[in-house]
């Protein structure tokens, strides 16, 4: 049973590796790079704000329990 | 006893939630501001790599006050040129010619970071034809380029065969993003390309 899992994993890894190679058969002319992340600003601020609130709330709750 | 157990579980849970939220806060801050590496894929074909000394190490653009370290970048999983792993360095396409050799050496830099703050090429659109660009390689040799053309393209209409040309004059092409953010594709809708030619 364990061997079956291992061989299935190896097959999947080979398949994935094949896909990755197929994407780069003409490296002389790649696509243009995407060199900017400013559009993620709102999402990042939302994640930071939410994470900060949860972290502070969790810490305060733990402190009161203790 | 039951009350104490319940209190212990709640305490453990609140600590776990606090740690998880703190980890998300820290990693998001780091990725947005300082370190955002792209996953690069190995290339299938044999490409002759540049000699170690010919690899560019610094880019200077006096007109914009840019003096940046140059990283070597390859290709990402989408088949595009990868970008530097931070917002202050520029990336040289390592499977193309190095600056000063026949063909177009391509350098990419971020226009901004994940919190909207300026990246190394934020002011690239302020360059003018005739401005000077300097590149220093790992041998310490300096090459001077002069801007000859500045173009803006839709992000999916960049003439990559020109941008990455191998058989033209010794050129240096700088590229960054411009325009409006396309949420569906998570990229800007335009690319700014500065074409420069070797002076000496």
Tell me about this structure:
The complex is a heterodimer of chains A (66) and B (200). Chain A has 66 residues and is mostly helical. Helix content of chain A is 70%, strand content 0%. The longest helix of chain A has 25 residues, at 41-65. Chain A starts with a helix and ends with a helix. Chain B is of the alpha+beta class and 200 residues long. Chain B has one domain (40-198): Beta Barrel (Sortase, Chain: A). Helices cover 18% and strands 36% of the residues of chain B. Chain B is elongated and about 80 Å long. At the A-B interface, α1 and α2 of A face α1, α2, β9 and β10 of B.
Any idea what the CATH architecture of chain B is? Beta Barrel
Helix content of chain A: 55-70%
Shape of chain B: elongated
Secondary-structure element order of chain A, as H and E? HH
How many DSSP E strands of chain A? 0
Uncertain spans of chain B: none
Strand content of chain B: 35-45%
Shape of chain A: rod-shaped
Q: According to CATH, what is the topology of chain B?
A: Sortase, Chain: A
Provide the structure class of chain B.
Answer: alpha+beta
Question: Which residue ranges of chain A are poorly predicted, with pLDDT under 50 across at least 5 consecutive positions?
Answer: 1-26
For the termini of chain A, the CA-CA separation is: 47 Å
Number of separate strands of chain B: 10
> How many distinct domains of chain B?
1
Structural class of chain A: mainly alpha
């Amino acid at each position: 049973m364990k061997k079956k899992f291992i061989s299935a994993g190896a097959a999947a890894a080979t398949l994935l590796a094949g896909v990755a190679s197929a994407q780069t058969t003409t490296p002389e002319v790649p696509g243009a790079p995407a060199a900017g992340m400013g559009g993620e600003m709102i999402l990042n601020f939302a994640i930071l704000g939410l994470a900060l609130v949860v972290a502070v709330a969790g810490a305060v709750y733990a402190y009161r329990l203790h | 006893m039951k009350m104490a157990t319940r209190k212990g579980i709640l305490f453990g849970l609140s600590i776990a939630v606090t740690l998880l939220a703190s980890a998300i806060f820290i990693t998001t801050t780091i990725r947005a501001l300082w370190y955002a590496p792209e996953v690069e894929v190995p290339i299938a074909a044999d490409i002759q790599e540049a000699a170690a000394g010919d690899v560019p190490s610094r880019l200077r653009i006096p007109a914009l006050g840019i003096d940046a370290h140059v990283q070597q970048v390859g290709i990402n999983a989408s088949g595009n040129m990868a970008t530097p792993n931070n917002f202050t360095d520029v990336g040289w396409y390592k499977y193309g010619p190095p600056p000063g050799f026949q063909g177009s050496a391509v350098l990419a830099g971020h226009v901004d970071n994940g919190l909207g703050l300026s990246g190394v090429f934020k002011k690239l659109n302020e360059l003018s034809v005739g401005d000077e660009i300097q590149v220093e390689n790992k041998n310490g040799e300096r090459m001077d380029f002069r801007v000859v053309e500045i173009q803006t393209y839709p992000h999916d209409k960049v003439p990559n065969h020109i941008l990455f040309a191998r058989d033209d004059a010794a050129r240096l092409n700088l590229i960054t993003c411009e325009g409006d953010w396309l949420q569906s594709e998570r990229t800007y809708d335009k690319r700014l390309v500065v074409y420069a030619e070797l002076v000496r």
